[in-house]
Amino acid sequence: SQPPGDFPEAAYFFLLPFLIWINFKPKQKSVLISLFVTGILYQISLLFWIRHVSLPGLFAMAIILSSYNLPWYIAARKLAPILTSGSFFVRLTLFVGLSSFWVVIEWARGLFSLGFPWCPLSVTQWERPALLQLVPYFGGFIVSFFLIFFNFCLASYLHHLLVRRTKSKHSSYFSNLCPDFYFCMLFFLVMLSPLFIKFDKTRFPVHETEESNLRVGICQPYLKDKWISSNAQKNKNLLIEQTKLVALQRPDVIVWPEASTPFAINEDRAWVEDLSAEINIPLLIGSVIKKDQLSYNSVVVISPSSGLGQEFYAKQKLVPFGEFVPFPFDLIPGIRRMVGPVGDFGAGMNSQKFSFMNEENQTFNVSPLICYEDIFPSLVAPLERKRNSCIFVTTNNAWFGEEGCAEQHAAHSVLRALESGMPVIRCGNAGWSGWISPNGVIVEVLRDELQGVYFAGTSVFNVIFRSHFDKTLNFQKLFPLLCVTFSFFCFAFSIKKFRKVANV
Predict the structure, then answer these.
(1) By C-alpha distance, which of 62, 71, 72, 74 is closest to 29?
(2) What per-residue confidence (pLDDT) applies to 55?
(3) Are 103 and 483 in contact (CB under 8 A)?
(4) What are the phi and psi torsion angles at 355 (to 5°)?
(5) Checking DSSP bridges between strand 389-395 and strand 212-220, what pairing results, if any?
């Protein structure tokens, strides 16, 4: 179900083998070992592309991410007797509690310096925008919550058909009905409800604005080994060639991927400034900035008239062991040699927006995110949501081969577009480059003749900015905290039930 797979519906029943197994009350040790091993295998298959950078890193990441979910499987195994024998109210309470606990674990994966909230369950539905309609109100976690809840209800329905009703003393038409199934279908309709519910504009105003367009030129150069000095001129020539080619279509701005210039832009600026002046189009590019004896993974603007701008966006979420060494590992002698060829990066502290004009002299604000920053909802939440605003994700994924990294990364951008209510423009070094509408629809993707996304190429996207919905009901920050509360309530409730059974 995870990208680049094309069967997202598998997420609706992926837990069934486990839920059927725990119905037979396996030993806790068996559950722990089995789920830890299968979790590692799952993570390796999901993140297999990391091996191109570090094979030990692949196994370390698989072990860490598999460990995150172990408490959930142990809790589900512990609650199995109540799940199968409890009343509808008891089952529903545990379904909500365990679905909430799953969300808490996904949320926790992004809270620490080693946090890596890659591919939560919600991104399996990135190409199913109909199921993502509540994301603007509750965030992407609501989709993960629903999918876990659906798995439980489906398992309970099967248990009802095969076990519960056969043990019922009163056989009737109503004994064949399973309320869990119907409650789940109601929840499914709620997930789809924004598609067919028209809100009262007096309570939930819609800001009527004229449609406006920003033409964005995309350069996808597929630069490899770009830190090798002997490749510098070749890479420069490729960027110049692509930029001049896309400039023929007269876009309003041209974008380059993350860290695309061979050297720090403020130390090697003339060739980029000359290029922008020659084509008379501003450039929004990913590059390294060296300042105060530190390197910053940055996004900068090159103006045709004034050259390199003073303001730049510095990446806030650095890659552990790729761009910096987190504490306490930095105390180990020699470990800093693990970071990239540019050296230890400094982290930015704030978001940044850049403004551009189209041919109609309309102003557009672009807020950049670098590399994997769009997998963190917390970085999108504080972005200013004004008219004609969008998010720009610039990334260098040429490190990771062509085995799914680009699609998995792009799937997160779909959720960020829905959460922010803004279009998301993506420019990848090797692919996936495209843009996503505020309602989560993938509008355009840069593809080759075989419909592949991994290649060197250019395009111009006509990014459309329409009327946007004022999300008065926004529980994106609150929903994970509600899930923490539901989880504690579920465990307290289950302890009380266990004590009651023990006393009987």
Answers:
(1) 74
(2) 85
(3) yes
(4) -110, 140
(5) unpaired
* Helical H segments across 109-198, by residue range: 135-138, 141-159, 165-167, 179-192
Q: Write down the mean pLDDT value for the chain.
A: 87
Q: Where do the H-state alpha helices sit in 80-178?
A: 80-85, 88-108, 135-138, 141-159, 165-167
- Residue % of the chain over a pLDDT of 90: 63
Residue-wise pLDDT tens digits, 208-250? 456 889 999 999 999 987 777 778 899 999 999 999 999 999 9
Give me the half-sphere count of Cα atoms (radius 13 Å) on the Cβ side of residue 215. Answer: 14
Instruction: Single out the residue of 363, 333, 178 nearest to residue 252, CA to CA.
Output: 363
What is the b/e burial string over 294-309, where b = at least 16 CB atoms within 10 angstroms of the residue's CB?
ebbbbbbbbeeeeebe
What the block records as the tokens of 210 is: 């004229």
> How many whole angstroms separate alpha carbon 213 and alpha carbon 390?
12
Cis peptide before 117 (omega within 30 of 0): no
Distances (CA, A) of 172 to 22, 99, 161, 175, 183: 29, 32, 13, 5, 21
Separation CA 298–CA 371 (nearest Å): 10
Report the alpha-carbon distance of residue 58 to residue 52 in Å, rounded. Answer: 9
Distance of alpha carbon 80 from alpha carbon 101, whole angstroms: 15
pLDDT digits (tens, 9 = 90+) for 20-32: 999 888 998 999 9
Residues 6+ apart with CB under 8 A from 140: 120, 122, 123, 377, 415, 418, 419
The predicted model scores a pTM of: 0.90
Output Rg (C-alpha) for the chain, integer angstroms. 25
CA 120 from chain center: how many Å?
A: 7
Instruction: Output the CA–CA distances (angstroms, integers) from residue 302 to 110, 298, 389, in the order listed.
Output: 33, 13, 20
